[in-house]
TrEMBL record:
This is GTP 3',8-cyclase. One of its GO terms (molecular function) is 4 iron, 4 sulfur cluster binding. Its EC number is 4.1.99.22. It catalyses: GTP + AH2 + S-adenosyl-L-methionine = (8S)-3',8-cyclo-7,8-dihydroguanosine 5'-triphosphate + 5'-deoxyadenosine + L-methionine + A + H(+). CDD domains: Radical_SAM (cd01335), Twitch_MoaA (cd21117). It comes from the Bacteria. It comes from Fulvivirga lutea. The lineage of its organism: Bacteria, Pseudomonadati, Bacteroidota, Cytophagia, Cytophagales.
Length: 325
């Protein structure tokens, strides 16, 4: 079992498969994009599967595949199918912007994907273009409904930004009334690949806006290690969650590690230092030695995101596409 120095068991790994993305969301990367990594620098699918098997033997039961945009990388379905077959891995999830997902929805259903998180920050097509710098709202909207129609558990992630999409808080909540989906409001974080920052709308402000329209909204019980505070509008088909990603209220129960597309192990989103699992894998070290290296790095995990941020060697923040969303 992987356990950090605070006694927290690591049961969840977020693994990025690419730093490439077909959108240019301004809270994630500059308009001109980023310098993408050459393919040879990325973890191969074989390396990802090997990591999955090693982690599955050592207490990790949940894997989330992220990017960049995961479906920008070819043959992702084969990788997901292999991950679903690993002993010890009970759940495999994917976070996507859903632009490219249409040809793969039935495959996702057939392999039993545990859920899909769709990044969608607005219900308005013009605002979508303003945020993403791309005209792809219709594709995302149609694919979101296709996921639901196929019976795939679906969440919608909305990054709430001051002066940009505050007006979408209630329309998004309304979607949970008529659709069997989970809406997840996320505080904006500074990982936009530039020095541009925005005033953060906190989780408490989001909750106040929801309460003002739905005073009878119900608080639900969260699972251990959950990052979201969960709610439900009475009579709705779906539910609502608020993730205090900037306020970092959930750090004490952290059960996760993060692996970038280049194979760097990060203990925390706000931590700038890591070790290269890719290089270790390519040295052909044993599984036992690799897990020793992972545990050694895990022993350096900070108590919370604020401590990790204060310990950073650099003030600037990478694009979320580089770290793994």
């Amino acid at each position: 079992m992987l356990i950090d120095k605070f006694g927290r068991k690591i049961t969840y790994a977020r693994i990025s498969v690419t730093d490439r993305c077909n959108l240019r969301c301004f809270y994630c990367m500059p308009a001109e994009g980023i310098n993408y990594s050459p393919r040879k620098d990325l973890l191969s699918y074989e390396e990802i599967i090997r990591l999955g098997k090693i982690l599955g033997k050592n207490g990790v039961s949940k894997i989330r595949i992220t990017g960049g945009e995961p479906f920008a990388r070819k043959d992702l379905i084969d990788c997901l199918r292999s991950l679903k077959q690993i002993v010890g891995i009970e759940e495999v999830h994917v976070t996507t912007n859903a632009v490219l997902i249409a040809p793969f929805i039935h495959d996702l259903a057939s392999i039993g994907i545990d859920s899909i998180n769709v990044s969608l920050d607005t219900t308005d097509s013009a605002r979508f273009y303003e945020i993403t710098r791309r005209d792809e709202f219709e594709a995302v909207w149609n694919n979101l409904h296709a996921l639901i129609d196929c019976g795939i558990p679906t969440k919608v992630n909305i990054v709430v930004m001051k002066g940009i999409n505050e007006g979408d808080i209630i329309p998004m909540a309304n979607l949970s009334k008529t659709l069997p989906i989970s809406i997840r409001y996320i505080e904006e974080m500074p990982f936009n690949g530039s020095e541009v920052k925005h005033e953060v709308i906190t989780y408490s402000e989001i909750q106040e806006r929801l309460n003002s329209v739905y005073p009878n909204i119900e608080r639900l019980t969260e699972k251990p290690g959950s990052t979201s505070m969960k709610f439900k509008i009475p009579g709705s088909k779906g539910d609502i969650g608020i993730i205090a990603a900037y306020s970092r209220t959930f750090c004490n129960d952290c059960n996760r590690i993060r692996i970038t597309s280049k194979g760097e192990l990060r203990n925390c989103l706000y931590d700038h230092s890591g070790i290269s699992l890719r290089d270790l894998l390519r040295e052909n070290i044993s599984d036992a030695k690799l897990i020793e290296e992972i545990q050694a790095h895990l022993n350096k995990k900070m108590a919370n995101g604020f401590e990790a941020e204060n310990n950073r060697s650099e003030v600037s923040y990478e694009s979320m596409s580089i770290i793994g969303g």
